[in-house]
Every structure is written in C-alpha cells, then in structure tokens.
Amino acid sequence: MRKSKELSISEYRLKANEASIITAISYQKRDKLRASVFIAGEFAFGINILTIEHFRLRKKDELSAQLLEDLRAFDDRVSAKRLATKLLNTRRRTEKEVRDKLRLQDFEIGIIEDITSNLKQLGLIDDEAFSRAFIHDKRIAKPISSRQLSQELRKKGVAKEIIQTILGEADEEEGEDGRAMKAAIKKWEQLLRRESDEKKRKQKLIAFLGSRGFEYGVIKDVLRKLDAEVEEEY
Fold first, then answer.
1. What percent of the chain has a predicted confidence (pLDDT) above 70?
2. Cα(42)–Cα(40) distance, integer angstroms
3. CA distances from 37 to 8, 29, 174 (A)
C-alpha cells in the first residue's frame, strides 16, 4: 500500500454483502489528471484518469473484487510513472534518486523496477549524462577535486565504473594539480587580506584545500609552487 494524501484506490476496500456500484465520476479541480469515484453517493477513492480510460469505467459499473485488483495494479503504475516523470522534469536525477523517491511513496518493488527500466530506455534516466552534467556544473562553480566529486556521485548511486570513466574524460582537459592551484590562488588572495600570520595562512589554506577533497600530496605541491611564486616576487 502506498502513501497518498487522499484515499486512493489502493486503500479502498469493498464492503461485505453490499454491491459497489459507481454512482458518479468527478474530475478533480486541483489535479486535472485524476478523478474522484463515488459509490452509493459517497466518495470512495481517487484514481488516475488514464486508469478510467483504460478500463472504460462508467457510471453504474459494478466493482468486483477482480476488477478492483486490476484497477489497483494499473493505477499504481500510472501514479509511479507520473511521480517519476515529475521528478525528472524538475532536474536531472540518478536512477537511485528516482528509486528512492518511489520507495518513499511505498510503491511495490516490481513497479519501481518496471518504471525505472522504461525511463532508462527512453533516455530520461541516464547516470552517465547526469555525471557529466554534475561534474561540469560543480567545477564551473568552484575548483573541486576528483575524489570529492567521486564521493558525491557515489552517494547519489552512480556506479563506480561510470564515475571513473567520466572523471577520466574530464581530467584529460585539466589535471588535479591545475584545479588545486586555481582554488589555492583565489583563497590565498583572501587570506593575505585577512590573516597577517604566514604560518596560520598556510594552515588555513591546507584545511581549505582538504575540504575540497584534494589529497595531501597535491596540496603539498601547491604550497611549494606558491612559495616559489612569492620568492620570485621578492
């Protein structure tokens, strides 16, 4: 049973010894892709319009136990597809992110598998494309290490092999040393204005570069190059 703000067909139960005749179907104002079904003059459940059309539900139809089961199975798939599509329309997401959102709504594993598989075939879920865009956007905003990007992508469920491939392509354009140096120069200029003690400046720079995910060997090389540039200036 999945979560819903309204009573959905997944939660509806037939009443014993009582015919379940549809007395009205009313299209909802807040969600034009859903309708409300009334039985014996009372609201019974909400349902997707696609489900109504697929089963050709009409006023005076009787809901049998088998029909209700078929309606539930079909409607849950429609709802899951709608939610997944809505999520992907707002921003790119990894397969894991979509799966996690669907699980939070208590959709069955089989439905989640089918929906994500279909969206991958359509190219709407593409972890490689997501990773390329993610790395590009992150590095435009600020120089950041491959190690930190890898950790963030792993948290989003991207496979290790995909991450290595995409980062390898990106690192051909600019190496880790170059990105670390860019980050260091910008931060060093700030520290020169704010910190008079040279030892503390270097400590803060090391901590800063470490927070960006750069390894100590790379940081050490950056400090050496900065020292050489300072010596040349003086």
1. 91
2. 6
3. 10, 14, 60
And the tokens for 13?
Answer: 């139960």
Summarised one tens digit per residue, pLDDT across range 124-158 is 999 999 999 999 898 887 878 888 899 999 999 99
Contact residues for 145 (Cβ-Cβ < 8 A; gap 6+): 176, 179, 180, 212, 213, 214, 215, 218
Query: By the 8 A CB rule, do 147 and 213 touch?
Result: yes
CA distance 1 to 13: 12
CB 144 within 8 Å of CB 212: yes
Distance CA 89, CA 175 (A): 33
Rounded to whole angstroms, the Cα distance separating 70 from 116 reads: 21
